[in-house]
Amino acid sequence: MKGTSYREAISTKERLAVALRFLATGNSFTSLAFNFRMGFSTVREIVRDVCETIWNKLSPMYMPEPTPLMWEKSEEGFRSYWNFPNCCGALDGKHVNITCPINGGSDFWNYKGENSIVLLALVDPK
């Protein structure tokens, strides 16, 4: 990031602060733009860029691509820890109620008549 003669670039620390505030509070981009004295579209781009960068850096460490050896070790763990053979993972989900995003339409509308997003978790035997 490089500043121009018109203004200074938004620092990395401030970009991270904007993204973390969004992730922690769920505030709207408009609210964050007001709080950080930035434009709405600037906040939107910052959150998108920071989240994409975090995903690209951390996903290989914490969500590596599965290998046959990983599946075999997971199955062995379920068999030995929980006496549950032939299981490679446990998956569960939950609807988390949200306020419908702008222009969300019926994308977040669920069968209970609420707006929600599905949170899924896949775990190993430990």
Automatic annotation (TrEMBL):
Superkingdom of the source species: Eukaryota
Matching InterPro entries: HARBI1-like
Protein name (Swiss-Prot/TrEMBL): DDE Tnp4 domain-containing protein
